[in-house]
Design a protein that fits this description.
mainly beta; 10 strands; globular
Length: 116
């Protein structure tokens, strides 16, 4: 059974930083492209950052230059370093495979709230 567990969210002031973690189990992590998604209130879930098995990365324009995605295959863990946070980054953040996700893999997510 695949389990993806997100952690590291919290409340931060605009301009601050947070580091999210995604711990994976039940999946051969190293052979999957992975991504961070977010869903703000009243909005659709969107892919904000993705990393391939080889380590190539892609970012949504809204986070480019501020967020950095990384992975540690030995630890079956993926990270999202978020700097220069803005109120519009407020959302629940999830991890899943990317660019295509598996609906059954969605976890509880981790809440990120950025105050102005």
């Amino acid at each position: 059974q695949v389990q993806l567990v997100e952690s590291g969210g919290g409340l931060v002031q605009a301009g601050g930083s947070l580091r999210l973690s995604c711990a994976a189990s039940g999946i051969i992590f190293s052979i999957n492209g992975m991504g961070w998604y977010r869903q703000a209130p009243g909005k659709q879930r969107e892919l904000v950052a993705a990393i391939t098995t080889g380590g190539s990365t892609n970012y949504a324009d809204s986070v480019k230059g501020r967020f950095t995605i990384s992975r540690d295959n030995a630890k079956n863990t993926m990270y999202l370093q978020m700097n220069s946070l803005k109120p519009e980054d407020t959302a629940v953040y999830y991890c899943n495979t990317a660019p295509a996700y598996y609906p059954a893999y969605w976890g509880q997510g981790t809440q990120v709230t950025v105050s102005s």
